[in-house]
């Protein structure tokens, strides 16, 4: 019991810190991905906007979905949402709490990507270089160009090597202008996100603390119950398998003995444990038959009532503890049918 | 018992050191962010002031809010402030103490950002280059007003074609940087003197109240942690019983080896004490609601404990 308690405490305390760790790693990964990414503005009138906004918005969406995928509580949420009601009511508040806490963690990496992108400035420079106000920033004495021609010239602003509009508007002036706007947007976005996070965190104790305590308790409970159920089933499966195999060997031994017209060998009381464990199979031929039989014709998942005297075979107590386990009864719990 | 005592001591010492650690990390993060940030002044007449002052003041606000969010004690303080009174009176001195300690810790990273910004000088040069008096500088003295505004706005941009070889640009830049650094050092000095005075003069005023406030604020923090721990423990045992009943209802004689008969007698008492007969959903909800609406009085005499435990057995 103590061992279970310690393991569960570790998992419980660790679950939160584990999820926070994953969250932090994804945020760092998104910043690193951005710096490793080789941004290549196409410098063509309509493509610039698509490329710039695409780089700004598509990776965050992917990171958001990845945040959900890496969170192993998603399956728990889905299970709780889709289960039949049965004898236990479903509480939508608990489902909402679980979803919100997952969504909050998944939002961090995309927010980091968008902030880093805006503060760096390349995306906005690429996307909006054709919208630079030439009248205020540029050379007003330059002979007028057609709209299309002007757009083509302005679209080359991010690509300094091929920019040919220096007389129209200096490249550095335009880049500085766009970058200033981008960085202002970036800092405003960061401020907005931190304000939202602050409001979400600080308004909760003022309004819904009791409901929050309830939802948090029951969502932890669902998680622990699931883990404990899996553990219990694993223990049960182990005991089941032990008894099943024990009964197979005994059946084998009895069959072989009756085929050779020998009475089944009962281990005499004063023989050592090793002899008991041999279960009457003491030569190569018998062992080979047993192995072939195990492969060709596995025993049914149906344990006989205990005809064995206690103390015979392995963990004699085991057999007594699992007298009427039938595979079909077992399968009426949540797992799949095992064919008899 | 010993194990509980060790855990208590760990929480006690750890809460403060965790908060100080977070505060330090945030301060380092703010310096790192400033050095990584690629400051690029727009060098346009009205945009300079907005950009320069924006970079100086907007990130500190974000860092302050981050400092509040990352500090667990701010939630504890809010809860204590907003809870219904119930059986336990609210002590405003404790709430004020918690609030002031949270604010002090949250202010460190923003102040560091502002000081680093001022000592570096780029922000102030960008923001105020259009506001200097052009008569003081030879290169800008005899030009028209509009022209001089344009030229001064370009001072922060060293590589601009107009400013590349302009010696007056360097003069303006040095002048503004000198002001910026003087301001930065003065603010630093004032803050350090204020902190020093606060540390030294505090014991002269209300030391007893301060000790009480600090004790009870630690207590509230630890109580919160232990409540969460106890709820976890309780939900674990609740799940344990629930699954046990589930398996037993399937087949009566099945007992897994860890729940075998001989041990159940000893284990049952310990579990009984922890569960306190709270064995269904409504009872747990009622317990949680009672914890929020009517916190128990701060009195752990034996008879009060017994009364309270009876009270929850619904």
UniProtKB/TrEMBL annotation, chain A:
Keyword hit for Transmembrane: yes
Molecular-function GO term, any one: monoatomic cation channel activity
Pfam families documented for this protein: Ca_hom_mod
Compartments, record wording: Membrane
Keyword annotations: Ion channel, Ion transport, Membrane, Transmembrane, Transmembrane helix, Transport
Statement: the UniProt record of this protein carries the keyword Nucleotidyltransferase: no
Listed PANTHER family: CALCIUM HOMEOSTASIS MODULATOR PROTEIN (PTHR32261), CALCIUM HOMEOSTASIS MODULATOR PROTEIN 1 (PTHR32261:SF2)
Record's protein name: Calcium homeostasis modulator 1
Annotated source species: Athene cunicularia (Burrowing owl)
UniProtKB/TrEMBL annotation, chain B:
Keywords annotated in UniProt: Ion channel, Ion transport, Membrane, Transmembrane, Transmembrane helix, Transport
Lyase is among the record's keywords: no
Transmembrane spans: 49-70, 182-201
One of the GO biological process terms: ATP export
Primary localization: membrane
Domain of life according to the entry: Eukaryota
PANTHER family per the UniProt record, alphabetical: CALCIUM HOMEOSTASIS MODULATOR PROTEIN (PTHR32261), CALCIUM HOMEOSTASIS MODULATOR PROTEIN 3 (PTHR32261:SF7)
Name this polypeptide is given: Calcium homeostasis modulator 3
């Amino acid at each position: 019991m103590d061992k279970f308690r310690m393991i569960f405490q570790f998992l419980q305390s660790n679950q939160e810190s584990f999820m926070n760790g994953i969250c932090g790693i994804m945020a760092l990964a998104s910043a690193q991905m951005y710096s490793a990414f080789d941004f290549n503005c196409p410098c063509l009138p309509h493509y610039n906007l698509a490329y710039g906004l695409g780089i700004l918005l598509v990776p965050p969406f992917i990171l958001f979905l990845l945040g959900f995928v890496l969170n192993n509580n998603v399956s728990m949420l889905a299970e709780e949402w889709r289960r039949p009601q049965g004898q236990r009511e479903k509480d939508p508040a608990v489902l909402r709490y679980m979803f919100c806490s997952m969504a909050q963690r998944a939002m961090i990496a995309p927010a980091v990507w968008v902030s880093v992108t805006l503060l760096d400035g390349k995306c906005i420079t690429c996307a909006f270089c054709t919208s630079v106000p030439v009248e205020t920033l540029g050379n007003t004495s330059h002979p007028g160009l057609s709209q299309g021609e002007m757009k083509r010239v302005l679209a080359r602003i991010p690509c300094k090597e091929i920019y040919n509009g220096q007389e129209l508007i200096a490249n550095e002036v335009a880049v500085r202008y766009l970058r200033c706007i981008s960085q202002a947007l970036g800092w405003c976005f960061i401020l907005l996100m931190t304000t939202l996070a602050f409001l979400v965190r600080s308004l909760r104790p003022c309004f819904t603390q009791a409901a929050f305590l309830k939802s948090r308790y029951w969502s932890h409970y669902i998680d622990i119950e699931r883990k404990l159920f899996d553990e219990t089933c694993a223990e049960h499966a182990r005991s089941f398998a032990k008894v099943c195999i024990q009964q197979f060997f005994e059946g084998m031994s009895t069959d072989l003995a009756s085929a050779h017209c020998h009475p089944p060998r009962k281990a005499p009381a004063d023989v050592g444990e090793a002899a008991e464990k041999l279960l009457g199979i003491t030569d190569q031929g018998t062992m080979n038959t047993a192995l072939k039989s195990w492969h060709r014709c596995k025993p049914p998942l149906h344990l006989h009532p205990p005809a064995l005297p206690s103390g015979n075979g392995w963990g004699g107590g085991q057999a007594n503890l699992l007298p009427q386990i039938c595979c079909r009864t077992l399968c009426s719990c949540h797992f799949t049918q095992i064919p008899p | 018992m010993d194990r509980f005592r060790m855990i208590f001591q760990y929480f006690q010492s750890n809460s403060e050191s965790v908060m100080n650690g977070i505060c330090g990390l945030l301060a380092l993060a703010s310096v790192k962010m400033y050095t990584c940030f690629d400051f690029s002044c727009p060098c346009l007449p009205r945009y300079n002031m907005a950009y320069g002052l924006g970079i100086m003041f907007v990130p500190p606000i974000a860092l302050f809010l981050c400092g509040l969010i990352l500090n667990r004690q701010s939630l504890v303080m809010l809860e204590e402030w907003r809870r219904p009174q119930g059986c336990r009176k609210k002590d405003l001195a404790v709430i004020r103490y918690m609030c002031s300690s949270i604010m002090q810790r949250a202010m460190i990273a923003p102040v560091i950002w502002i000081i680093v910004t001022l000592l570096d000088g780029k922000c102030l040069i960008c923001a105020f280059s259009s506001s200097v008096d052009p008569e003081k500088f030879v290169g800008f003295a005899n030009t028209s007003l509009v022209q001089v505004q344009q030229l001064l706005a370009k001072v922060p941009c060293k590589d601009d074609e107009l400013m590349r070889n302009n010696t007056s640009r360097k003069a303006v830049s040095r002048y503004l940087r000198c002001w910026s650094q003087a301001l930065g050092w003065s603010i630093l000095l004032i803050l350090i003197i204020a902190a020093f005075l606060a540390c030294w003069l505090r014991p002269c005023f209300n030391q007893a109240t301060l000790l009480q406030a600090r004790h009870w604020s630690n207590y509230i923090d630890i109580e919160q942690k232990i409540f969460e721990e106890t709820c976890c423990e309780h939900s674990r045992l609740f799940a344990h019983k629930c699954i046990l009943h589930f398996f037993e209802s399937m087949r009566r004689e099945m007992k897994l080896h860890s729940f075998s008969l001989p041990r159940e007698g000893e284990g049952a008492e310990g579990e009984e004490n922890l569960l306190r007969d709270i064995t269904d959903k409504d009872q747990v909800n009622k317990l949680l609601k009672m914890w929020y609406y009517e916190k128990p009085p701060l009195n752990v005499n034996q008879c009060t404990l017994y009364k309270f435990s009876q009270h929850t057995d619904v």
